Amino acid sequence: MKTILIIDDEKLFCESQARFFKKVGFNVLTAGDGNKGIALIKENQVDLVITDMLMPGKEGLEIILEVKKLVPGIAIIAVSGGGLASPRDYLNTAKKLGAKYVFEKPFDRDKILFAVNKALKDIET
User: Fold this and answer.
1) What separation in angstroms does the CA of 84 have from each of 81, 95, 99?
2) Model-wide pTM > 0.90
3) Taking CA atoms, which of 44, 89, 97, 114 is between 20 and 30 Å from 103?
4) For 22-67, how does the pLDDT look when each residue is reduced to its tens digit (9 = 90+)?
5) How would DSSP label each residue in 19-48?
6) How far apart are alpha carbons 100 and 7 in whole angstroms?
7) Is the N-terminal amide bond of 72 cis, ω within 30° of 0?
8) What is the pLDDT of residue 81?
9) Mean pLDDT value of segment 67-88
10) How many CA atoms, within 13 angstroms, populate the side-chain half-sphere of residue 53?
11) DSSP H helical ranges for 1-125
12) Is 112 helix (H, G, I), strand (E, B) or coil?
């Protein structure tokens, strides 16, 4: 069973995404901030990370860079609802830093599930 780590400071978002991915057959870990997320990656076998871009403390761009150093082949999906800038600005930068897929919140669950499955399949080959 593949493990997904969801890093997002929005508790309801984390909980709803965790329920969804567990329901479709994944093991799911959640973290409410980047530091906790990085700690979970160091302590667990994680196959894919879904990270928000804007959070207190360690933001998504920092998380992407750190995760890529810790686990070079890991798949990363970045999500953002925006902030002072457009979500697209943050997500374009995330893509340049190594996020495989990017999604603006709110997003279609079928589309992110497709992206998760494709990203996991791509790292296996």
Assistant:
1) 10, 19, 21
2) yes
3) 44
4) 999 999 999 999 999 999 999 999 999 999 999 988 999 999 999 9
5) HHHHHTT-EEEEESSHHHHHHHHHHS--SE
6) 16
7) no
8) 85
9) 86
10) 26
11) 11-23, 34-43, 60-70, 87-97, 109-124
12) helix
Asked if 76 contacts 96 with a C-beta cutoff of 8 angstroms, the reply is no
Single-letter amino acid code for the residue at 7 = I
Q: What confidence score (pLDDT) does residue 26 get?
A: 98
Q: Which residue has the tokens 């997320």?
A: 37
Domains of the chain with CATH codes: 3-124 (3.40.50.2300)
Distance CA 116, CA 75 (A): 8
Averaged pLDDT, 109-116: 97
Q: What are the CA-CA distances from residue 89 to residues 5, 79, 107, 115, 120 (Å)?
A: 23, 12, 17, 20, 25
Nearest of 19, 39, 45, 18 to residue 30 by alpha carbon: 18
Residue 44, token pair as written in the block: 């667990």
Return the SS3 of 57: coil
